[in-house]
Design goal:
Elements: H1 2-27, H2 33-36, H3 39-52, H4 54-83, H5 88-103, H6 106-117, H7 121-145, H8 149-157, H9 162-199, H10 205-214, H11 218-252
Length: 253
């Protein structure tokens, strides 16, 4: 924990120094502020967006799309991946299909999803979910197969039913993998939601970034990128916090 906090402080310090140098270079004319933006310009864009209320609304829309897509795609993938433990022969076939699905660029599926589900929030949730499903299922399958063989043989030696083995051994042993899946899929879900907003949307950070880029408003583009980065970081921190609470609870039990 102390090492993690120390690393966080170092990264934060480096970022602050880089931001200060960026602003000083822009003010001194060493870089083109219109082309690269500036921290002060980003701040002014944030103030304008917060004053109008659009920035908070766009952030909320993208956050909801990301969370729903993350839970939907990762949840279904994890459940299916773990349940396939009961069917080892079928799991190999399904895993190959998942790898094939995961290799498809999700941006190529964007227009299809938009046509099928419209330009509203539902299509962005589907894109975010599709972006996370395959990774979750492949990882869950691997988690079920990596269970300690000695423990598995111990359960079998007592002639424990497969349902009991699944409940008492497979699922608990897969908990660290499950949290890793959610941490990894945060980025994929966010990408899926933003790609959908780029293609067709009236709200969301992806839509705001797309419009700002079309108008050559680099400060607003940077603002959207920063908020998306912070969103991913906060969601990752929340998942890590939940994981630590659950792991500590298991240890106490």
């Amino acid at each position: 924990m102390k090492k993690r906090n120390g690393a966080t402080m170092i990264v934060t310090t480096i970022l602050i120094v880089l931001v200060i140098l960026w602003q000083m270079a822009a003010q001194a004319g060493l870089i083109n502020g219109q082309l690269l933006g500036s921290p002060l310009g980003i701040y002014h864009s944030a103030v304008i967006g917060l004053t109008k209320g659009q920035l908070l609304y766009d952030t909320w829309v993208t956050l909801c799309e990301t969370l729903f897509g993350l839970v939907l795609g990762s949840g279904l993938g994890i459940v299916l991946g773990l349940v396939l433990w009961f069917y080892p022969r079928t799991s190999d076939i399904v895993e190959q299909f998942s790898i094939l699905l995961n290799s498809i660029p999700k941006i190529a599926l964007g227009p299809l999803i938009i046509i099928w589900f419209g330009s509203g929030m539902v299509s962005k949730i589907w894109l975010a979910g599709i972006s996370t499903f395959a990774v979750a299922m492949i990882s869950a399958c691997a988690a079920a197969q990596e269970v300690d063989k000695d423990l598995l043989n111990l359960f079998k030696s007592f002639k424990a039913p497969r349902a009991m083995i699944f409940k008492k051994l497979i699922v608990p042993a897969s908990v660290p993998w499950i949290f890793s899946i959610f941490r990894i899929n945060i980025g994929f879900a966010l990408i899926g939601a933003v790609v959908g907003e780029f293609i067709a949307s009236e709200n969301g950070l992806g839509h705001a970034v797309f419009v700002a880029g079309s108008l050559f408003d680099l400060n607003s583009v940077w603002l959207g990128v920063i908020i998306l980065t912070l969103m991913a970081a906060v969601l990752t921190w929340v998942v890590q916090l939940i994981e630590e609470r659950i792991v500590s609870w298991k240890v106490q039990q």
